[in-house]
């Protein structure tokens, strides 16, 4: 068709229609859809600070309950045991804390108990100073049993109320500790019926050491319930006196996430070397600091300590409901050992 031979009115109309079709403006999309979105910065929550693979991250009411449980009353010294056979036949659920010397275990226990004075928490500040296995009771506010009359003798663990938890402070291993302590520790971890979980502390700044790997591999092979706690995470998140800004905090949390992934990968590699092929390492890794916190309103609250408290209570079956009220405790699943029972 010869465009020039068309009548002028038709030619003008056809020209306008062709021009409009060729130059149709793009749809008016919102600017947010056209521009690439920048990744959101991580903020401090239980799920970003810790690495959960088995448990669900605790909710705020869980953490409030755990904080109140441990802070409602000071810890009670219950017993000291130099060896496995010295442990009392108590009916109470127990959890154990152990780690290399100088990993910060004593400081963590003081923070866990809500004590700022070392003497109040009955734990030593010097590396390798803990030479016996010491049990401390946390009542959660439940009243202790009647004190013995003058001239009577009644062990503290016998007066300890049901519904509480016993925290066992183990001697450190590695530099500053003694080899024979390790034998008695392993007897407790393998044979103590009341023990619900073992928490192994690892220095976040230095990572897994050879002795850590040996212990964790043994716990894995023996099927002993355990959990890793990365201590001193403030070295990664809060290295200076000045609180980190949003970007720096997010970068630190990402670095912490990579550290947890690397620990699991390292454990899997060690399992393969030892000939224990099978499922990949599946465990929760808690991260905490007994020195610093990010709560400007409450400087006594340290990083991750309430999450550790909640993990302790969960391991012992002492959780709360959605209203934050203590659940009813059933002790029928715990056998009370008599003094003449075989151990």
Automatic annotation (TrEMBL):
EngB-type G domain sequence ranges: 91-292
InterPro entries per the UniProt record, alphabetical: EngB_GTPase, G_ENGB_dom, GTP-bd, P-loop_NTPase
Protein name per Swiss-Prot or TrEMBL: EngB-type G domain-containing protein
Database matches in SUPFAM superfamilies: P-loop containing nucleoside triphosphate hydrolases
GO annotations of cellular component type: mitochondrion
Span of the signal peptide: none
Lineage: Eukaryota, Fungi, Dikarya, Ascomycota, Pezizomycotina
One function term, GO molecular function aspect: GTP binding
Organism of origin: Elasticomyces elasticus
Record's keyword annotation contains GTP-binding: yes
Alphabetized UniProt keyword annotations: GTP-binding, Magnesium, Metal-binding, Nucleotide-binding
